[in-house]
């Protein structure tokens, strides 16, 4: 007999927390999980005392089926006999990166007020990263506290893969296709074969080389990375920024082995900027917003389309509509204008919708 490992227990707690939050429930204390010994297949069970929209407390029971590897395969949730409105929840796999986001998602649920009666639950998002995307989610939380958005920085490619697997509701992406010159749309057949995707533009932005203030190495392009032996900080594999970089290096016939620090990876534009600010690196590729916020030099290399990709069935979700309304709101735009370098002319525009 094999004892269930701690990671599986954490996975159950994380999955249960998200599924409860999607229905306006916030666990009031630690979720109790009873862990038996399992062989090929087994069950775990437990309970959680939850607050429902700040109006009542309810004890929720759950059970989960485990595979031989010890990972959660399914989850069923029920309530006390007199609490009829909580349905059986359909479980889905929970990637590890969601667990880091859960603790940040519960703080605003009490503020939902009467609007919470219309709650359709939290939205899960993952994919690319942008400084104003974080600002947008914070602004949405203040404007529409009845909706929660959990977001993870995984890179554009992994965001699309997660969307196709059903791990997320939204993918953020800025994948560039050199053959067509388009962003994102050419990649849909490859990464979303099981969905009918919709591509909605959020904004256009500038991407470029970010360097120390006043650009002491006088870097003006990728060729200068080799000439100056600048220490580079890269983005992770699968990110749109990494794919664009590799395209330019290939076009210029610059071997990656000639770029010092090519294998040094970080996950966000701010991390690129901070690596330069702390002198761990001399140059990296990031947005102009990151460079401005950190007081760094910037050499433009591309103007990108940063898009939201989702399944057609999600387009009319009230949380999605609230997100787009927040994006186009005067209050949010005024905040972004202080940073500058963003183009919202196509904001909210459907760039592609699958037929059939």
Give me some keywords for this one:
about 350 residues, alpha+beta, Nuclear Transport Factor 2, Chain: A, D-Maltodextrin-Binding Protein, domain 2, 11 helices
Describe the protein's architecture and organization.
By secondary structure, this protein is an alpha+beta fold. It folds into 2 domains: 94 residues, Nuclear Transport Factor 2, Chain: A, CATH 3.10.450; 246 residues, D-Maltodextrin-Binding Protein, domain 2, CATH 3.40.190.290. It has 11 helices and 17 strands. Strands 8, 9, 10, 11, 12, 13, 14, 15, 16 and 17 form a 10-stranded mixed beta sheet that branches. Strands 2, 3, 5, 6 and 7 form a 5-stranded antiparallel beta sheet that branches. Strand 5 and strand 6 form a beta hairpin. Helix 1 crosses helix 2 and helix 3 crosses helix 10. The longest helix has 16 residues. The protein is globular and about 65 Å long. The chain starts with a strand and ends with a strand.
Give me the secondary-structure topology.
Layout: E1 2-3, H1 6-21, E2 25-27, E3 32-34, E4 37-38, E5 42-52, E6 56-66, E7 72-79, H2 96-102, E8 123-127, H3 131-143, E9 149-153, H4 156-165, E10 170-173, H5 188-191, E11 197-211, H6 223-227, E12 232-235, H7 240-251, E13 265-266, H8 269-277, E14 283-287, H9 288-294, E15 297-311, H10 318-327, H11 330-337, E16 342-343, E17 350-353
Parallel strand pairs: 8-9, 8-10, 12-13, 12-14
Antiparallel strand pairs: 1-4, 2-5, 3-5, 5-6, 6-7, 10-15, 11-14, 11-15, 11-16, 11-17
């Amino acid at each position: 007999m094999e004892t269930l490992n701690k990671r599986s227990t954490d996975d159950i707690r994380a999955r249960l927390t998200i599924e409860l939050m999607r229905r306006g429930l916030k666990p009031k204390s630690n979720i109790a999980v009873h862990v038996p010994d399992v062989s090929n297949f087994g069950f775990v069970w437990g309970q959680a005392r939850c607050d429902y929209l700040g109006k009542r407390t309810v004890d929720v029971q759950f059970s989960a089926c485990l595979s031989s590897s010890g990972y959660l395969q399914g989850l069923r949730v029920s309530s006390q006999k007199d609490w009829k409105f909580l349905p059986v929840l359909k479980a889905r796999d929970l990637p590890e990166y969601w667990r880091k986001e859960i603790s940040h998602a519960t703080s605003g649920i009490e503020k939902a007020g009467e609007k919470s009666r219309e709650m359709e639950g939290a939205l899960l998002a993952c994919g690319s990263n942008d400084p104003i995307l974080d600002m947008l989610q914070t602004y949405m939380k203040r404007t529409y506290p009845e909706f929660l958005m959990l977001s993870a920085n995984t890179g554009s490619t992994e965001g699309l893969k997660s969307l196709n697997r059903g791990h997320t509701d939204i993918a953020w992406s800025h994948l560039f296709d050199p053959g067509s010159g388009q962003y994102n749309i050419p990649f849909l057949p490859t990464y979303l074969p099981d969905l009918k995707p919709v591509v909605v533009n959020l904004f256009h932005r500038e991407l470029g080389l970010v360097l120390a203030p006043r650009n002491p190495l006088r870097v003006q392009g990728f060729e200068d990375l080799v000439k100056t032996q600048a220490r580079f900080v890269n983005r992770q594999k699968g990110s749109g920024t990494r794919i664009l970089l590799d395209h330019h290096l290939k076009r210029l016939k610059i071997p990656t082995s000639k770029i010092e620090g090519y294998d040094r990876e970080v996950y966000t534009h701010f991390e690129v900027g901070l690596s330069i600010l702390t002198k761990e690196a001399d140059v990296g590729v990031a947005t102009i917003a990151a460079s401005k916020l950190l007081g760094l030099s910037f050499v433009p290399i591309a103007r990108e389309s940063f898009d939201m990709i989702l399944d057609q069935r999600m387009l009319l979700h009230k949380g999605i509509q609230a997100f787009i309304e927040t994006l186009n709101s005067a209050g949010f735009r005024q905040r972004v204008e202080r940073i500058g370098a963003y183009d919202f002319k196509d904001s909210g525009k459907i760039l592609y919708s699958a037929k059939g």
